[in-house]
Amino acid sequence: MLRVTESGLYCDLGDFFVDPWRPVPRAVVTHAHSDHLTWGCGSYLVSERGLGVTRERLGEWSGRAEGMPFGEVREINGVRVSFHPAGHILGSAQVRLEHRGEVWVASGDYKTDPDPTCDAWEPVRCHTFITESTFGLPIYRWPAPREVFAGINAWWRENAAAGRASLLFGYGLGKAQRLLAGLDPSIGPILVHGAVDRMTALYREAGVDLPPTEYATASRGVATGAMVVAPPSTDGSAWARKFGEHSTAFASGWMLVRGARRRRSVDRGFTLSDHVDWPQLLQAIDATGAERVLVTHGFTGPVVRWLREQGLSADALATRYEGERDDAQVLTAESESDTTAGVSAQPAGDPRVATGDEFAGDADDIRTSSTSDGGPPVIRDGSDARGADE
Amino acid sequence: MRAFAELYDAIDRTTATQGKVAALVAYFGSASPDDAALAVSFLIGRRPKRLVKSGDLRAWTAAAAGIPDWLFEESYAQAGDLAEAISLLVPETSVEADDMSLVYWVQEQLLPLARLEPALQREVLLHVWRTLRGSSRFVFNKLITGSFRVGVSAGLVVRALSQVSGVSGDAISHRLMGQWEPSGDWYARLMHPDTDDADWSRPYPFYLAYPMEQELTALGAVHEWQVEWKWDGIRAQLVRRRGKTLLWSRGEELLAGRFPEVEQTAEFLPDGTVIDGELVAWRDGVPLPFSELQKRINRKTVGRKLLNDVPCAMIAYDLLEYGGTDLRTSSMQERREALEAVVRALPAGRTMHLSPLIEPKSWESVHAARADSRTMRAEGLMLKRRASAYGVGRRVGDWWKWKVTPLTIDAVLVYAQAGHGRRAGLYTDYTFAVWDNDALVPFAKAYSGLTDVEIRAVDRYVRQNTLEKFGPVRTVTPGLVFELAFEGIQESSRHKSGIAVRFPRINRWRTDKLPADADSLETIRAMLREVRSTA
Hints:
The complex is a heterodimer.
Chain A: E1 3-4, E2 9-11, E3 16-18, E4 26-28, E5 43-47, H1 51-58, E6 65-68, E7 73-76, E8 79-85, E9 93-99, E10 102-106, E11 128-133, H2 145-161, E12 165-169, H3 175-182, E13 190-192, H4 194-205, E14 214-215, E15 227-230, H5 238-241, E16 246-251, H6 258-264, E17 268-270, H7 278-288, E18 292-298, H8 300-309, E19 313-316, E20 325-328, H9 330-337, E21 357-359, H10 364-372
Parallel strand pairs in A: 3-4, 4-5, 5-6, 10-11, 11-18, 12-15, 12-16, 13-14, 13-15, 16-17, 18-19
Antiparallel strand pairs in A: 1-2, 2-3, 7-8, 8-9, 9-10, 20-21
Chain B: H1 2-13, H2 17-30, H3 33-43, H4 54-65, H5 69-79, H6 82-89, H7 102-110, H8 118-131, H9 134-144, H10 154-165, H11 169-175, H12 184-190, E1 207-208, E2 210-211, E3 225-231, E4 234-241, E5 244-249, H13 260-266, E6 273-283, E7 286-287, H14 290-297, H15 304-309, E8 312-322, E9 325-326, H16 332-344, E10 352-354, E11 357-358, H17 363-371, E12 378-385, E13 393-394, E14 399-403, E15 407-418, E16 427-436, E17 439-446, H18 452-464, E18 466-470, E19 473-476, E20 481-486, E21 488-491, E22 499-502, E23 505-509, H19 521-534
Parallel strand pairs in B: 1-13, 2-14, 8-10
Antiparallel strand pairs in B: 3-11, 3-12, 4-5, 4-6, 6-7, 6-8, 8-9, 12-14, 15-16, 15-19, 15-20, 16-17, 18-19, 20-23, 21-22
Helix pairs in contact in B: 1-2, 1-9, 2-10, 3-12, 4-5, 5-6, 6-9, 10-11
């Protein structure tokens, strides 16, 4: 029902794309992160809950986006399309497609851990399930989010007592708001970077309960003991330095592994992801009852092999989704120096490049499978690479 | 154990020296002497060797985690560290057991592993993995795999011990030299305020030079400096006391029996003599290449044939003790004069040679001497201030090492392997090839020299241009050219290219060059001929 084309996952029967990576006439979109939401499409169908953040991200194309409530069904050329919560960020959806009794679910990015800032992931029974594999190795097992937040608040309290600001880095859309929701506002004032502020306002408009925040403007000056939530690209910037003495932390699933933590060179790494870990991935697949699993971005090879060894029909699907990125600033730096490695420059004027992070997962298995089935060769940071927030 | 694991975390978490020292001070201020003794030994790098075979650890981990071996290997490659892979994969108990001392875990659980059969090792480890949690378990695993390392230098540990005890850092450093067993009694002696103690077998802490990076003229007048060759061997300290000889390497390994010809010469030295020098392979009055010395290094016992084939000697740099008196606070000039007297008093045919001094009239002649280093089979020059004392550790100011400009060659990346630790999950270990007619022949491996940004870019290239995978190694389409630097070059029957290079590293990424522009084996052979003909 869906196949990979040069522009993205295409439904021939319904003549529409799911999360296309090039402009197409008709897009059905799982969520508003930029590796799933591309500019310039003719129309966008998104979940009603995600309409606000999608429009913010689309800018001049925002008028082309239309929302549809979770669970509601729309027929597009005979294909029944509906959205179901994916638990990734506000409004993130799994796309269910049904045609003559056959059901496919494209899940985009998803997680099953609790998150008060978005609707919880729901298993959707299907024949074919398309899943991400960002953290698809058994080393990835998340600590309970409440323990992580206890650690974040303890770090903040310690810094505040020592008169230091706390700079907590997380992607501007999704992670930042989830972090805000877990902070203990009794410790001190909470400031947010401009990129976080815009999205936070939209979360509040959507009815998500978040602690009071202030916009961290240049004129505000040093805030002793404050918590500052900002995108990862601000680490080490002039903007960050104006907070005076401060401690830095990065919240991401990658922070589980010590090597990645050390590479990141922040003071603290908190393991908090908006993707499923290994046991959650397997449980989620199991809960769909799918007999066939198509695996996209992440540790595609190991996940496919594991599922096959468990007796499922599984294949890799060559997409350009990027999952959760781990290192800030590298993407832009590389694109300048790295013509040899086939990385071309960022599109000029893309405001999202500033918050762009590089994805550390394994892309080679995707590449191999795409060439074997005659699909488009996937070069992750190819000509239309974008610096996605997540 | 928990306190030690928390210390590990605290050190690991901060890059600030102050924070590290504060964590060490807090730990040593409250740890029992027995625990503290073990902690000191681990922190300064005296960790147990690997106690369990890596293959066994992998198999048991996979079984305990309920995953097949291939999935373990994928996970291990991503974690980049065996101890961490174990900690992340083996399910953890939810019930925190009572905390036991570091000594208990090391003496009762860890060290006995060395004597156990694999089946029993497995039982012990499964028990430990079921009992310890979090950082304690990770630290224990680091000790099992012999890879316990944490981001503090011995110098910082000494600073913290000095703060806690009030004993001077130099005295602590000296007490940490030589052979000792970490026990509570030993720790008490380490921290004891009476510094007049003496362990007769103990060497002095080595004084190390800083690499020369400024202009020579910044050093002032040339006559204030002692200039000599930097020999390419094993830095060692020869201790002659109580009628016995102890030969210590810079890594504080006792080289007893490894250089019998040097130990024989030492018998002619008076008691209470300590000489700092370089052990080198030596024949007919000149040093032999380092590769010759290598034949001796790894032999515990040296047979007659090897003694004949590769005779060794010590080149004496400095005199640290004479007549039982510590001379380290005397000036270099005074120590050198005393050293000359001591070495010249040895009988003929001795295997102890004075490090020849270069007596330059000007800084220009120092430049010229350095250019001759390779001909002399030296690595470069040493510059020591004539007025300088013999210090402790690496200090800026009085001693400088000035190595020869390395040889360089442009080579093509052909194989890559994922790194470890900080480079986990990134392809950072590279093999480079040069042209031999129409074929690329691998000739050197290099791991260092690229910036983080370059590493990411090469990693991406490797993933996108993989030809084949052989276990952890990938062959890649030849496309990237790098300038490699190396110190020495030799023929080798063990290498496919027939050439072995010393200390290869990446000088820079030649983004301006294509594989066809890389150098050929013939160019390297010509370099080899040139080095030889001048030698």
